[in-house]
Amino acid sequence: MLIYMLATAMTVAMLIATVFGLHQEAQRIRIKANTKRFEGFGPRKPYRHY
């Protein structure tokens, strides 16, 4: 019975740690996205119609 209690406690602790880590990563990405705008995939060339 004790092993099941320990396994449950470890599972809950790992789930909490995972949620906290995902939250931290989302915050980091959100801050990074706000500081630098995405400017596309390299320099744009003007469109010329021939």
Explain what you see.
The chain is mainly α and 50 residues long. 68% of the residues lie in helices and 0% in strands. The radius of gyration is 23 Å and the shape is rod-shaped. The mean pLDDT is 83.
Instruction: State the low-pLDDT regions, or none.
Output: none
Strand content: under 5%
Distance between the termini: 79 Å
Structural class: mainly alpha
Helix content: 55-70%
The biggest sheet, with number of strands, parallel, antiparallel or mixed sense and barrel status, is: none
Shape: rod-shaped
Overall pLDDT metric: 83
β-strand number: 0
| SSE order, one letter for each helix or strand | H
Task: Give a quick summary of the entry.
This protein is mainly α and 50 residues long. 68% of the residues lie in helices and 0% in strands.
List keywords for this structure.
single chain, 50 residues, mainly alpha, 1 helix, 0% strand, rod-shaped
Topology:
Blueprint: H1 2-35
